[in-house]
Amino acid sequence: MANYIEVHHATKSFTMQYHRSLKQIALARLRGQKTHDTFNAVDDVSFTVEEGESIGLMGLNGSGKSTLLKMISGVMRPDAGTVLTRGRIAGLIATGAGFDMQLTGRENLLLNAAILGMSRAETARKFDEIVEFAELGDFLDTAVAYYSSGMKARLGFAVAIHVDSDIFIADEALAVGDRPFKRKCKTKMDEIRQAGTTIFYVSHAPGSVRKLCSRVLVLEKGRLTFDGDVDEGIKFLHYDDDEDGDGKGDDDGLGADI
Amino acid sequence: MTASPSRSERPDLPPLAPPAAGSGLLEVFRQRYLLGMLVRNTIQSRYQGTVLGWAWSYLQPLVRFLMFYFVFQVMIGRGSGMENFAIHLFAGMVLVHFFTETFAGGTQSLVSNRSLITKLAMPKELFPVARMLVSLWHTGPMLLILVIACFLTGWRPDLLGLAAGLLGFTLILLLGLALALFFSVSNVFFRDFGKVVQTLSQFVTFSVPMLYPFTLVQDRFGETGAKIYLYNPVAEAVLLIQRCFWVGTTDDPTATAALHMPDHLWTRGIVMVMVSVVLLALAQRWFTKFEKRVPERL
Question: Cβ B13–A2 below 8 Å, yes or no?
Fold first, then answer.
């Protein structure tokens, strides 16, 4: 098995600017106050992911999950260390990003597909499938401004989930849409996993992590504090306390994914 | 970087590489499909929901033209000593509009596409370039009006003039893109740059020979003044456009060109195009240097 993601001692630091204008900075300097601070959003994190693994990335708010994900998807570059990936990265990372409210669903679908890296041929091949998945019906040729929030989200999801990828990233709550749509998303995710795609899934919902993932990473204040078995990881994060166990409904885990 | 374990690499696998998207203007043109989609959708959404639709792209320049024409020709009588002042004015406006739209719009392009840039890895040069292409596309209707007006006033196009017009457009395209690249990324770190650009764009309208003839500069500020004036590449480009359209509509184009065009019009034009190419290369380096930190600063 080949490694699909290799993260070696990746660190990403951010600067917190306390003042923005020259006057404020000058005054703060005079008073001997700090004008800025740096902190490590991701701090010396290392791990590797093999082909076909599905990783659940967990952690409290502000623990650096999104920053780590952005380094893996290539939006941000690490300040120190390296992040290497193999093949095309896609997934539920920016569903609906770049939607133009003035344009129709059809136009936005084509634009969004292009933004997510699909070629003209690939879009043409999957167009019908995406339309069917989004369940927009006659609204396809209506301006997105008139869509309900659920319809907008469905369109965004439908495009994102159909992009072919070697590494599939999901950073967004699957708690979009109604129960049938959620089910459909989950089925599609299972399909992606069964096709052997490497999955990197960020979630606060232990239920969905259990169902989808084969390994859990836990971040705490930017540091990787746990890497291993799913149940142990959830226990490590004390996310198992108020869980009823495995007897829950099929998509309750996804629903709790807020 | 730690080497990956010494497994036998399967040749059918894609290589292990940093995930960041390629960048640079070349990468943008490699992603022509996406660029085309961005440009087309921006153009389409601009007049979406308006009853007049496309007519707006003709109406807006027309109204601006009428306003300038009224103030400068009818009220002040500036153009009275000039043949076809209207053509002189409109030809300049086409180019100035293209320049300010590219410059000001391009500068805002990264900030206004924040939602995409902070979430997806894509070559960020796409946005200033798309903005430039949108502006270029919008000069289409204006050029059409200009050409019709020129023919109505008895325009006799000449090959040299057309070459001058092309050179002028090339100059503005390269310069506008270079400035857009430089200022768009700077604007992410200090929004002051956006304000600077707004101020500069207002200045442009009055610093080029469109509301007044170039001869006026020589009259009022002498040879030295005219020399400094001509260091402005936009002024040079507007002169080239005047050479293309306005000169050909006058009764005696040769005399007009001799009187109203500065010496070394061509040499200056070609040198400025070359300077703009260098500026573009420098702007690209500046952009590459700072674009890495753009997602976290937006």
Answer: yes
Q: Do A83 and B18 touch (CB under 8 A)?
A: yes
Domain housing B139:
64-297
Instruction: Classify residue B59: in a domain, yes or no.
Output: no
Q: Per the domain annotation, does B29 fall within a domain?
A: no
Q: Which domains does chain A have, with CATH numbers?
A: 3-88+165-255 (3.40.50.300)
Confidence of residue A172 (pLDDT cuts 50, 70, 90): low
Question: pLDDT grade, residue A239 (50/70/90)?
Answer: confident
Query: A with B: how many residue pairs have Cβ under 8 Å apart?
Result: 105
The reply to whether residue A98 touches residue B33, judged by beta carbons under 8 angstroms, is no
Q: Looking at CA atoms only, how far is residue B180 from chain A in angstroms?
A: 21
pLDDT higher than threshold 70 for residue A45: yes
- What does DSSP assign to residue B253? H
ipTM of the complex: 0.84
pTM: 0.88
**Proportion of chain B in helix, strand, coil states, percent, rounded to 5:** 75, 0, 25
Q: How far is CA B24 from CA A20, A113, A253, in A?
A: 30, 22, 43
Query: Contacts of residue B33 in chain A, CB cutoff 8 Å?
Result: 114, 119-120
Residue B24 lies in a domain: no
When pLDDT is cut at 50, 70 and 90, the band that residue A33 belongs to is: confident
Yes or no: say if B90 and B67 are a contact pair by the CB < 8 Å rule: no
Say if the Cβ atoms of B19 and A84 lie within 8 Å. Answer: yes
* CA atoms of A97 and A156, how far apart (whole Å): 8
User: Structure tokens of B146?
Assistant: 């200009």
For the segment A165-173, the average pLDDT, to the nearest whole number, is 83
Nearest CA in chain A to B17: A84
DSSP lists the bridge partners of residue A36 as: A17
Contacts of B139-142 with CB under 8 Å at 24 or more apart are B139/B94, B139/B95, B139/B97, B139/B98, B141/B57, B141/B58, B141/B61, B142/B61, B142/B90, B142/B93, B142/B94, B142/B97
Q: Residue B186 falls within a domain, yes or no?
A: yes
Counted domains in chain B: 1
Low-confidence ranges of chain B (pLDDT < 50): 1-8
